[in-house]
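Q&A log
Question type: sequence-to-structure
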Amino acid sequence: MSTSRTTTDTGTATGARTTAGARPAGYGIVRARGVSFLVHRRSALVAGGLLLLLAVSSVAYLCVGERFVGPSEVVRILFGQSSPAAFVVEELRVPRLVVALAVGAAFGVAGALIQTVARNPLASPDIIGISQGAGAVTVAAMTFGLGSYTVLPYLSIAGGVLAAALVYAFAWRGGLHATRFVLIGIGFAIALRSLTTLFMTKGDYLVAQQAQIWMTGSLNGRGWDESAPLRWTLLLMLPAVLWAARAQRTVSLDDDTATALGVRLGPVRLGLVAVGVVLASVATGVAGPVDFVALLAPQIARRMTRTAQVPLLCSALTGAVIVVLADLLGRRLFSPVELPVGVLTAAVGAPYLIWLIVRSRTAGSAGGKA
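Response status: OK
Response body:
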């Protein structure tokens, strides 16, 4: 997402605001208990559709397994009614579903925030080295026995923050240039992935094999205990995410306009990146580096809503849908062999990344000829 595109979108929105008066085109006013606020109609419809799709996907997720449980029975179990299949649904499938929902939402929001700051659809945590930093620290801890699965997500946050700080520091040259930010991040991602491989060769063979499986991104064996750090982090980060949803509107403007409005771009951008880094790192610590979710979800959400900035709520819902469906297919596509969720997301995300790069180069060539 280039600066010129952002400026054009903003200018269009401003023009719509001028012609429509106090209410921008495409927005409605919601009033509740003396409080009123603007709601983008298309975004609200898309969010409702995603919620419905997520509900259907979640029920299907709980139905399908080695033992099939009917949808009506699943719904009765969720509402507390007794059933012979209650143990299978409540103890085996629901915890893993909660992890899938939380991981997908965290990656979706993280990708949306980082792409907003970088103004580039390629800037996602798994492309610019954040997931690799979290993964390197986590694999080191696993290989050398420095932490349990309940501690690993917190170590992942430290690794992701450190990687992001290095990328941010090297990319900063009196400002944050999108292309430099992405290229330096890709360089760090390659270096950190090599470091992760080195850690696995130095540790115990069996632990290294577990680390290798974790590196593909998997929800196998994840339950309430393993997901606790992610659930608590999402709860504690909710105020920061609400702030980010408001702050990203001004960051989406071009620098001159945002500065003229009194926005301190440096601290705001740093805050948005920090929120995205923490969310992506803790999700990586729980499920491993589930590649391309943070890349795909924000762009799919933005194309569905057709908004000037990447919508956080729809990005979170899209990320959750992607992870739930990918894990469902991974469990049953080649049953009894279970594929890690990261294999399915990579199978979809890698072609999209290639298309995105080719499309960007084509657009750049056309602009140069013009």
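Response note: The longest helix spans residues 86-118.
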